[in-house]
């Protein structure tokens, strides 16, 4: 299978007053054409930074990026911000996390959607507006003609997220980054948006990178899953394989911390104790060691490498779940 | 809009109309002294607001002076605002070393008191070495506008830079970039419309500041001395304040009312335009 997007050894560092912050530490990830890949991890694990760095959207003089990003056979990491624009909109597009801030408050919906069409596809104003109305209909917004003339504040969160999706798919991108597309929405709308994305993906034959912190969302909507922790991919597998045969204690802990509808109400919600390691001062060993209930001395000293468990299943742990290596409880 | 704001905008409208039609109104020539009635009190026949010690009609002067005073402040705020906010927006958009240099320059200019700057510019550019050949008042006006423009640039530049910084990291700017938009389009279509409200409201405040500055420069003797402007009136009558106070009150009252009106309208604009952001 050829990869549409191939990320190799991607490292992103931010220079901060408190030292060098390594937000993404050597990520390797292939997005096959037509596939949907989920990236899961808790807040601060580097999911968003990774996806933005892959697209080359991180700007600022305090950002250092290294590694290679191949898109559709073209190396992107050596291009400057003007050259990489050629791939935006038509090649890659992104849906942003917060529909409240990702639309310009002083411009009408129509001009915002049609902007990409006019800039990237050179459409006339009239054609672009007509196409924008079609896009709004495609993301199931009722009365698209009227919505085109509205301002963002006149729309609800779910509507705005649909507008964002319409903007992102406007130029038929080959790859869509969906950066927590449902986080800012309530649960009923979440399901609608995810179904919408799945349908659109089928219709348009897009690949999708779904960034989320919700394993439940990933289980239903992706072909592959990469679990990120402290800037690294700690486990990666086809979705069914991952849920059937989890190797990484962190993934298990994430899964366990999803509230269960049938859990006794007097029980506390399970949580992952502790916090992410300080990104300016990473520990020597496994980043999860201090929070892992299976951690051994070796975990605290040596950083584990990605191991291959077969079936395209990679994990980064000295003592993977289901292994026969004796553990002592800590 | 509350009553006070209405009164203030009406006042500004009247001033603006006077600036245009002033010279065509049936008033005595502002430069023609009425030797028969020097220093008469307000409400005298033929001189509604009285005259100064030379017999110049105060009403006519204050009405005709509107044009020059308003032109000086509008031109310096418009030109200074355009230059300042362009520099501010670009500097906040590109960041890095350019931004550092621009901010430092703004701070340096801001640290020069504007009256000192105006004084020195007029002294260098608009004074004549030979007192018998006075500098034309047009040249004076031009140099005053130049120095006041220079004062406005960093004021509005910093406002624009600050406002841009607040918007440039918003997701919609990143979203626009992710759609492949050019920097020029992002600045004009996404940043400028959001930054403009702040510039409008501060611009109004700046007009008030410039009107006062023009008056103060006149009082220091470097204003539009021979011309017809509020500042020129203040300069001429400064010496006779003790025995003909009304000749000073007339221009000062008009000037003060205009400044208050500008501030109020600017404030009102700001609160109205902030509200839109609150709704988001």
How would you portray this structure in words?
The complex is a heterodimer of chains A (330) and B (280). Chain A has 330 residues and is α/β, with parallel strands linked by helices. Chain A is 31% helix and 23% strand. Chain A has a single domain, classed as 3-Layer(aba) Sandwich (Rossmann fold). In chain A, a hairpin with a 2-residue loop joins β9 and β10. Chain A is globular and about 65 Å long. Chain B has one domain: MetI-like (MetI-like fold, Orthogonal Bundle). Helices cover 73% and strands 0% of the residues of chain B. Chain B has helices at residues 3-21, 58-94, 96-111, 114-125, 137-168, 171-178, 183-219, 230-237, 245-279. Residues 275-280 of chain B have low confidence and may be disordered. The A-B interface holds A 52, 55, 57, 59-61, 85-90, 92-94, 96-98, 100-107, 111-112, 115-116, 119-120, 152-153, 164, 167-168, 170-171 and B 95-96, 170-172, 174-182, 185, 189-190, 193-194, 276-277, 279-280.
């Amino acid at each position: 299978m050829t990869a549409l997007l191939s990320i190799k050894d991607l490292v992103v560092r931010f220079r901060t007053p408190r030292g060098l912050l390594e937000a993404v530490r050597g990520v390797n990830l292939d997005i096959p054409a037509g596939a949907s890949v989920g990236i899961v991890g808790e807040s601060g694990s580097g999911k968003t930074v990774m996806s933005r760095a892959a697209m080359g959207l991180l700007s600022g003089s305090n950002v250092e990026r290294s590694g290679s990003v191949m898109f559709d056979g073209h190396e992107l990491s050596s291009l400057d911000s003007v050259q990489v624009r050629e791939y935006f909109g038509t090649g890659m597009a992104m849906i942003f996390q917060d529909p409240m801030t990702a639309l310009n408050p002083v411009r009408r919906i129509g001009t915002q959607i049609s902007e990409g069409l006019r800039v990237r596809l050179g459409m006339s104003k009239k054609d672009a507006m007509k196409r924008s109305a079609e896009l709004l209909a495609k993301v199931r917004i009722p009365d698209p003609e009227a919505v085109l003339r509205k301002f963002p504040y006149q729309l609800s969160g779910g509507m705005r997220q649909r507008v964002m999706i319409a903007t992102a798919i406007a130029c038929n991108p080959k790859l869509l980054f969906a950066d927590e597309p449902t986080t800012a929405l309530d649960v009923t709308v979440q399901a609608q948006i995810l179904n919408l994305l799945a349908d659109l993906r089928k219709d348009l034959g897009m690949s999708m990178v779904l960034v989320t912190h919700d394993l439940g969302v990933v289980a239903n909507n992706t072909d592959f899953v990469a679990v990120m922790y402290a800037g690294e991919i700690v486990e990666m597998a086809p979705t069914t394989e991952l849920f059937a045969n989890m190797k990484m204690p962190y993934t298990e802990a994430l899964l366990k911390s999803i509230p269960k509808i049938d859990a006794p109400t007097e029980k506390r919600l399970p949580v992952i104790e502790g916090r992410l390691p300080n990104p300016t001062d990473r520990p020597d060993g496994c980043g999860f060691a201090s929070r892992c209930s299976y951690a051994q001395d070796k975990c605290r000293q040596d950083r584990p490498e990605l191991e291959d468990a077969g079936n395209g299943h990679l994990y980064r742990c000295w003592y993977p779940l289901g292994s026969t290596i004796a553990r002592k409880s800590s | 809009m509350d009553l006070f704001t209405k009164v203030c905008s009406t006042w500004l409208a009247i001033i603006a109309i006077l600036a245009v039609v002033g010279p065509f109104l049936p008033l005595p020539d502002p430069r023609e002294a009425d030797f028969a009635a020097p220093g008469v009190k307000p409400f005298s026949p033929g001189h509604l607001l009285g005259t100064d010690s030379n017999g110049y009609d105060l009403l006519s002067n204050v009405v005709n002076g509107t044009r020059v005073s308003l032109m000086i402040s509008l031109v310096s705020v418009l030109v200074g605002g355009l230059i300042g906010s362009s520099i501010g927006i670009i500097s906040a958009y590109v960041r890095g070393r350019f931004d550092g240099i621009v901010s430092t320059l703004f701070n340096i200019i801001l640290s020069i008191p504007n009256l000192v700057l105006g004084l020195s510019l007029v002294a260098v550019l608009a004074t004549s070495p030979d007192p018998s050949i006075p500098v034309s008042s047009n040249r004076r006006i031009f140099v005053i506008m130049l120095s006041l423009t220079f004062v406005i640039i960093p004021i509005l530049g910093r406002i624009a830079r600050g406002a841009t910084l607040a918007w440039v990291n918003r997701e919609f700017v990143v979203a626009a970039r992710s759609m492949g938009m050019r920097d020029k389009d992002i600045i004009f279509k996404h940043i400028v419309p959001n930054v403009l409200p702040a510039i409008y409201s501060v611009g109004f405040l700046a007009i008030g500041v410039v009107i006062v500055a023009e008056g103060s420069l006149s009082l220091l003797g470097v204003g539009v001395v021979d011309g017809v402007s509020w500042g020129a009136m203040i300069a001429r009558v400064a010496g006779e304040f003790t025995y003909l106070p009304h000749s000073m009150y007339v221009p000062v009252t008009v000037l003060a009312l205009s400044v208050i009106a500008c501030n109020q309208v600017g404030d009102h604009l700001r609160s109205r335009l902030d509200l839109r952001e609150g709704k988001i």
